[in-house]
Amino acid sequence: MSEQFPMFKLGTLIARQISSPIATRIKEYAKNHPVFSQNVCGRLAWYYRYGEIHCRMMALRLAGNSNFASRHQIVVPRVSPAEAHDLGADLLGELIVFMLGATILIFEYNRQANIKAKKTRARKEKWRALKNTLEELKIEAQRQNKQLESAKERLHILRNQNEK
């Protein structure tokens, strides 16, 4: 049970706890840095808003394959720059936390899969070794049976010679 449990679990816990402050710092940087705020956060907020509006219209059956979509252009209302920067920074922070969590999950899954594969390989090697040992014992038993048969034949020949 104690196989790497404390170190790896402690590492993942620390990574999860650190991801939130890192995301907060990146959000602050995004809000305060004008070029990053405008180019990354503003666009991220616009794409998010566009997806949100499009999904709402699809849910209301106002977009998609319906006749409404072919007759009307979906217009996304503009968001104020300050609101867009805040929304983009929040989305960026959440994206970072999510990506870190997903990365930890993938590493944990791969680690568990590797452990399982090692156990399977060890079990197969053990069976292979037992099979090889059994084959060697069969060969040895056959060799000894042949020696025993030849010894019996010699004994039989010697008895026949002594009787004459």
What's the order of the H and E elements? HHHH
Q: Mean pLDDT, nearest integer?
A: 82
Low-confidence spans: none
What number of structural domains do the residues give?
A: 1
SS class: mainly alpha
How many β-strand stretches? 0
Shape: rod-shaped
Distance between the termini: 76 Å
Instruction: Evaluate the radius of gyration.
Output: 37 Å
Largest sheet: none
How many helices does DSSP assign? 4
Q: Percentage of helical residues?
A: over 70%
How large a portion of the residues is in β-strands, by DSSP E?
under 5%
Could you describe the 3D structure shown?
With 164 residues, the chain is mostly helical. The protein has one domain. Helices cover 87% and strands 0% of the residues. Helix 1 (5-32) packs antiparallel against helix 4 and helix 2 crosses helix 4 (81-163). The longest helix has 83 residues, at 81-163. It is rod-shaped.
